[in-house]
């Protein structure tokens, strides 16, 4: 085997036993050489922090960083670990399912965890969402939702209805169709303009209800109705596109306009589902139901990747009447028993607790703790809703400086663009929540 002097010491060669433990330095060297991180260059320009373990709301680091060996997680691992880490109930669910089977193909077979999960999701989501397609990830759930809508209209002999309408400032994932309904200019996917399907975009929704904006939505849907398969939006909170909040009344406007003009309505609740906004689903703020709903992130409590796309009987029946009467989608790990068992346990764990009070307590703590940020130079706005706190700057955040400042406070955050934001686990205690807020204020001041 030729020598590569520029390679770090790494895994054992063929026929040699695997290394049991790497030092933090060895891991970082291997990471730098081989691992491509999300939204980053290859090779990376900054070293990530090495996490050795996690429990409760704390991440334990492999080596001291900025004087800290553990950090309070303010991000819930990209908004998924709502129960914190190493939770005994979720651990038990995973362990019990491992003893039965970790996976079996879903084509032609079924099993209790997937069936129980689907039934539970139908029970807790708005009526008449009654059919559940289990997906690999949130982005794939949006991909499936768009495919459902397109296939629905093709099955009814109306293939011209092939475009999606959304509003600017949104984010729906990184696979192909989801990228096409993300913000085409301010988002992460401007690189693909001219290649992605061209969708119809309304201006970003104002925070408060404005009748003139609602009239604009109605007019846009009416004008494009003959070519619109569906409207797709993140209800109440636009997540990674800018962490903006808007009036739930716009959801009622969309529902009425879609009904009037024979257009389907899709709610992407991947970030907002399971209580994050103070209601179990953001749609509940408006008292409306979509034709298709996407769920993910907190579905498994951050343990395993799984998402779901729910639809109404109208959508399912329409697809079934087509020349191709099946939804042409089937991931290898669809309905994975291990993920489904943990998802069932995660949903039950949430609903058995007073999650509404937990989120309300968090909202109060975030309002109080983030208030000092409004006095900082360079801060444009501070906003809080449910378990979401946002400090918006008037400039692009210096992510490295902001992250270091938060770590010095003992907090893990991941600022992006002009935002320093936080979505802590629901189980975060008052003292830890106050520390998280101090970390956000410090990050905003440094960034």
| Total domain modules | 2
Gyration radius from CA atoms, angstroms: 23 Å
Strand order of the largest sheet: 4-12-11-10-7-5-6
* Termini separation: 47 Å
Give me the number of helical elements.
Answer: 13
Can you give the mean pLDDT? 94
Helix/strand structural class: alpha/beta
Instruction: State the oligomer.
Output: single chain
List SSEs in N-to-C order: HEEEHHHEHEHEHEEEHEEEHHHEEHEEH
The major pleated sheet works out as:
7 strands, mixed
Count the E strands.
16
CATH H-level superfamily of the largest domain: Type I PLP-dependent aspartate aminotransferase-like (Major domain)
Beta-strand level of the residues, as a percent range? 15-25%
Enter the CATH topology name of the largest domain. Answer: Aspartate Aminotransferase, domain 2
Shape summary: globular
Give the name of the CATH architecture of the largest domain.
Answer: 3-Layer(aba) Sandwich
Helix proportion range: 25-40%
Q: Which CATH first-tier class of the largest domain would you pick?
A: Alpha Beta
Would you kindly provide a written description of the structure presented here, covering whatever features stand out?
The chain is of the alpha/beta class and 447 residues long. It has 2 domains: 26-86 and 354-445, Alpha-Beta Complex (Aspartate Aminotransferase, domain 1); 89-352, Type I PLP-dependent aspartate aminotransferase-like (Major domain) (Aspartate Aminotransferase, domain 2, 3-Layer(aba) Sandwich), CATH 3.40.640.10. Helices cover 35% and strands 17% of the residues. It contains 13 helices and 16 strands. It has helices spanning 24-34, 76-79, 88-100, 112-124, 138-155, 176-180, 211-224, 249-261, 313-320, 337-352, 355-370, 399-408, 430-446, and strands at 51-55, 58-65, 68-73, 131-135, 163-167, 200-202, 228-233, 237-238, 244-245, 264-268, 292-295, 307-311, 379-385, 388-393, 411-412, 419-422. The strands form 4 sheets. Strands 4-12-11-10-7-5-6 form a 7-stranded mixed β-sheet, with helices on both faces. Strands 1-2-3-15 form a 4-stranded mixed β-sheet. The protein has a 3-stranded antiparallel β-sheet with strand order 13-14-16, covered by helices on one side. Strand 2 and strand 3 form a beta hairpin. Helix 3 packs antiparallel against helix 10 (337-352), helix 4 (112-124) packs parallel to helix 10 and helix 11 (355-370) packs parallel to helix 13. The longest helix is centred in the N-terminal third of the chain and has 18 residues, at 138-155. It is globular, with a radius of gyration of 23 Å. The termini are far apart. Belongs to the class-III pyridoxal-phosphate-dependent aminotransferase family. BioA subfamily. Homodimer.
């Amino acid at each position: 085997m030729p020598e590569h002097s520029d390679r770090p010491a790494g895994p054992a060669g063929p026929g040699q036993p695997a290394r049991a433990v790497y030092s933090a330095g060895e891991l970082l060297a291997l990471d730098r050489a081989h691992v491509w991180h999300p939204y980053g260059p290859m090779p990376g320009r900054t070293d990530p922090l090495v996490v050795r373990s996690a429990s409760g709301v704390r991440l334990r680091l492999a080596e001291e960083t900025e004087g800290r060996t553990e950090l309070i997680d303010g991000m819930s691992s990209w908004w998924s670990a709502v129960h914190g880490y190493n939770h005994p109930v979720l651990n038990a669910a995973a362990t019990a399912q491992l003893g039965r089977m970790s996976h079996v193909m879903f084509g032609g077979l079924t099993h209790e965890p997937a069936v129980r999960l689907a039934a539970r999701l139908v029970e807790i989501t708005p009526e008449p969402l009654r059919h559940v397609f289990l997906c690999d990830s949130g982005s794939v759930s949006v991909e499936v939702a768009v495919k459902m809508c397109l296939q629905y209209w093709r099955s009814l002999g109306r293939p011209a209805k092939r475009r999606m309408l959304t509003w600017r400032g949104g984010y729906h994932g990184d696979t192909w169709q989801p990228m096409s309904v993300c913000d085409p200019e301010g988002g992460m996917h401007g690189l693909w303009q001219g290649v992605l399907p061209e969708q119809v975009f309304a201006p970003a929704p104002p925070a408060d209800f404005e009748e003139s904006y609602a009239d604009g939505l109605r007019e846009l849907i009416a004008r494009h109705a003959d070519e619109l398969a569906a409207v797709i939006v993140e209800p109440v909170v636009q997540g990674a596109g800018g962490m903006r909040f808007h009036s739930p009344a716009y959801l009622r406007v969309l529902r009425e306009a879609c009904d009037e003009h024979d257009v389907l309505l899709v709610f992407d609740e991947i970030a907002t589902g399971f209580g994050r906004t103070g209601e179990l689903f953001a749609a509940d703020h408006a008292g409306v139901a979509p034709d298709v709903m996407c769920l993910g992130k907190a579905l498994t409590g951050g343990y395993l990747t799984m998402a779901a796309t729910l639809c109404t009987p109208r959508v399912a029946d329409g697809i079934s009447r087509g020349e191709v009467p099946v939804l042409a989608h089937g991931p290898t790990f669809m309905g994975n028993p291990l993920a489904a068992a943990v998802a069932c346990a995660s949903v039950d764990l949430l609903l058995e607790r007073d999650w509404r009070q937990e989120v309300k307590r968090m909202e109060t703590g975030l309002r109080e703790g983030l208030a000092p940020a409004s006095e900082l130079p360079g801060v444009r706005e501070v906003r809080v809703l449910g378990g979401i706190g946002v400090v918006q700057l008037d400039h692009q955040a210096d992510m490295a400086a902001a992250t270091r400042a938060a770590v010095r406070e003992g907090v893990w955050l991941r600022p992006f663009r002009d935002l320093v934001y936080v979505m802590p686990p629901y189980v975060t205690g008052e003292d830890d929540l106050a520390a998280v807020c101090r970390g956000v204020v410090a990050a905003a001041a440094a960034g």
